[in-house]
Amino acid sequence: xxxxxxxxxxxxxxxxxxxxxxxxxxxxxxxxxxxxxxxxxxxxxxxxxxxxxxxxxxxxxxxxxxxxxxxxxxxxxxxxxxxxxxxxxxxxxxxxxxxxxxxxxxxxxxxxxxxxxxxxxxxxxxxxxxxxxxxxxxxxxxxxxxxxxxxxxxxxxxxxxxxxxxxxxxxxxxxxxxxxxxxxxxxxxxxxxxxxxxxxxxxxxxxxxxxxxxxxxxxxxxxxxxxxxxxxxxxxxxxxxxxxxxxxxxxxxxxxxxxxxxxxxxxxxxxxxxxxxxxxxxxxxxxxxxxxxxxxxxxxxxxxxxxxxxxxxxxxxxxxxxxxxxxxxxxxxxxxxxxxxxxxxxxxxxxxxxxxxx
Length: 358
Hints:
6-stranded parallel beta sheet, alpha/beta, 2 domains
């Protein structure tokens, strides 16, 4: 299982209107393909959205990181992850963690495929279905009526929770959420994501009104670096505080878990350095008695949640379903864990033909 060849690639494709915050919003997948001496391959990727930056991640992969992987044993995923972390430590996190993630995911895929098991099984699978919430059809630019109708579609499809983006115009958010509540009925959990748009006084003002609408959590109201602000919100507001999408390592999560700043921990495996680091964060959250709800990238997080019994939700955000040969299977608001070898994600020939840029 020695890695004999490595390569990188990038797909760039448009967001759609019900997700995007502007008409020209794009997604970029920055990927890695590894091949071992037996001919087996593994694929991984990171992503950017809205502001681009994929070329910078790909350059770091090509020039610095991928040369370190050739000749390594594919089963040594954790050791390679730690080596790459220390090699890039002085560069800071962010882009380095995103580049490491693509390699880590590819190595886990190769390791699982070589063993003939799914990624979930390789990680220690404990369940074959995981709860999820409907997300990605809640652009803050949508008219209230359309937002409510799309949320209602998720409810009718069997989802027990839906996520709505707020914070762009806080004064209008209560009316938008009231329309969503009417559309989904009294029993569906509403999750609110402010995408780091609020200051502390506005988050307190808005957060005090959300419980009246049955909102279950308030996600990313403040910049992710504002530990004191999150502590204040969690101590003051009568609903769960969720965050973590923009936290880039398990070490950076420590003060939020330890110092009472979060209820729902939301790592994004593409931002924290891959599957290896996300599993570590999941075990940390469990140790603190906190909920885990990985952010975005549903086809990979479904495997992680299957191996972490305290994972409360996976975000069902079908932003790249049209690019894949196999979609995920939904059953009454639950995701069935794929059992194909590796992570089971494969891109269609049309996706490669239409969207590959490098």
